[in-house]
């Protein structure tokens, strides 16, 4: 942010004493140095506009130092890849298999009666024992046997 401060004669004196490099002002051949030397001489002699008031510019910079907290890396837990068993066709399977499995009295009997049906009607399930076991569990639950 910058602010313009009211012009004062003291600001002119501060400019020559604190801002301008004295060595540069006295030794430089630049036009700016020559103009400032003539202004300083006029101020000392109090000629013409000797009471020149200089504007001062006040610059304000705000710096915020923020030290971030250290982040501790945590191990990401990897969920086991589960084969999703779609429950939608279960009713169709139950209806198709119910006549064959109705007389079963326990889980082993359901499994024994179901295996030939799986081999004959759904050979794709022969390789996937887990899905075949889930199918047995679904049918046991539906039939109400233990």
From TrEMBL:
This is Uncharacterized protein. It comes from Fusarium culmorum. The lineage of its organism: Eukaryota, Fungi, Dikarya, Ascomycota, Pezizomycotina.
